[in-house]
Design a protein that fits this description.
This protein is an alpha+beta fold. The protein has one domain (30-130). 20% of the residues lie in helices and 34% in strands. The protein has three helices and five strands; from the N terminus they run αααβββββ. The chain has helices at 35-39, 44-49, 52-66, and strands at 73-78, 81-93, 96-106, 111-120, 127-130. It has a five-stranded antiparallel sheet with strand order 1-2-3-4-5. β3 (96-106) and β4 form a beta hairpin. The termini are far apart.
Length: 131
């Protein structure tokens, strides 16, 4: 009689699952931002006086500001123009998630500041609520 050493059957241990860090958690304020939301805060003559490149730069920075932390100023610069966008508050307004935004565009001749509240409902685009 041959006696073989005893080997227990293999046991599968799944790898540990950790919760993602808070900065990787999905953010509720991610959604498309129509250009009208950005520019309705300013007078129409300002929109008409800016070049297409400056407008698209401001729109990209506005989208970045909506996804940044409260109080962080996103800025851009283009030859003689510069702008800053800051989210100053956030919260729920009815069933929508809202952020209060202050944006400034400066030229050598004038400075225009606009503030307002933009809100996002689940599955929809951002919309302007107050200005």
């Amino acid at each position: 009689m041959i006696i073989r050493p005893y080997f227990p059957p293999p046991v599968y241990l799944p790898p540990p699952v950790y919760a993602p860090p808070y900065y990787e958690a999905p953010r509720p304020w991610v959604g498309p931002v129509p250009a009208a939301v950005i520019w309705d805060l300013f007078p129409r003559d300002l929109y008409d006086s800016l070049s297409y490149g400056v407008r698209t730069t401001h729109e990209r920075v506005f989208v970045a500001a909506l996804t940044s932390e409260i109080g962080v100023t996103q800025s851009w610069r283009s030859r003689q123009l510069r702008g800053e966008i800051t989210v100053i508050d956030e919260g729920f307004y009815g069933s929508s998630f809202c952020r209060d935004v202050v944006q400034t565009i400066r030229t050598p001749w004038f400075k225009r500041t606009a503030d307002g509240r933009v809100c996002l409902r689940r599955g929809q685009a951002w919309r302007l609520v107050t200005y």
